[in-house]
């Protein structure tokens, strides 16, 4: 497989790590969410493909996942709306019997310099990126606690994986709503993890660096933009959605059962402060 940046691409994960488990991925009709939903299906999970718009793309993801011989269906819900998230998880429990893995991935940007940023732009990003993750984690947790550990399925009672960003750590001028939402995700994840670990619920985060998806197209879709971006990435390649999907699949599995309350940065070294390689 050739990567979008040339050379050998990311090898998709293919072991039955999540056989018999039920997973829900939010924002799964595009980018990282799409690759993650497919990866979870490939390693044996039944998958709910959440989307908010673009039903056709979601149905395509469903068909791809069904090709692995597991079950999948698409569910439209806006993760920032409490009633829609409650209904989505309830429908999954009805359809699949339970939930084992919640991947709170849906996210967006509404960028502006602070003096131009409207309250609507601020609220929209916080509502989807942070409140949406809270609602998804809360509803999944209710089912994890009700069901408890089923040893034949998994060592844990459930896994929550929050899609964060390197911007939970790296300040980002012109994106104060987005960076604040991801800083919030860090504390959401850590606090939930502290609260829920005694119930054998594992909460962790994955923090992507620059991954080639529609959310950041302008950062890589011309050679000049990509060259600029690569200066921030010590490993000198833009990430592929499968880089994140593989990480989520392994993190959700019992292989990483002792990983609790941690963020895994998947960023080609972006958080290594590359400016200090030659300066400072
Ligand atoms: P993307 O391709 O734009 O996908 C974002 C997904 O979120 C889309 O499926 C979108 O659905 C969905 N979404 C937006 N608002 C929603 C809502 N209210 N309810 C449900 N779903 C909603 O971007 P991506 O890069 O894959 O981003 C996925 C996650 O990774 C985000 O949390 C983002 O912050 C994070 N991340 C990405 C990068 C990167 O470099 N790409 C880096 C760090 C972190 P629609 O298309 O239907 O609106």
TrEMBL record:
GO biological-process terms attached to the record: monocarboxylic acid metabolic process
GO molecular function: oxidoreductase activity
InterPro entries: NAD(P)-bd_dom_sf (IPR036291), Sc_DH/Rdtase_CS (IPR020904), SDR (IPR050259), SDR_fam (IPR002347)
Source superkingdom: Bacteria
Keywords recorded for this protein, A-Z: Oxidoreductase
Gene3D superfamilies referenced in this protein's UniProt entry, alphabetically: NAD(P)-binding Rossmann-like Domain
Short name of any one Pfam family annotated for the protein: adh_short_C2
Protein family membership: Belongs to the short-chain dehydrogenases/reductases (SDR) family.
Record-linked NCBIfam families: PRK07231.1 (NF005559)
Name the record gives this protein: Sugar dehydrogenase
Species classification: Bacteria, Bacillati, Actinomycetota, Actinomycetes, Kitasatosporales
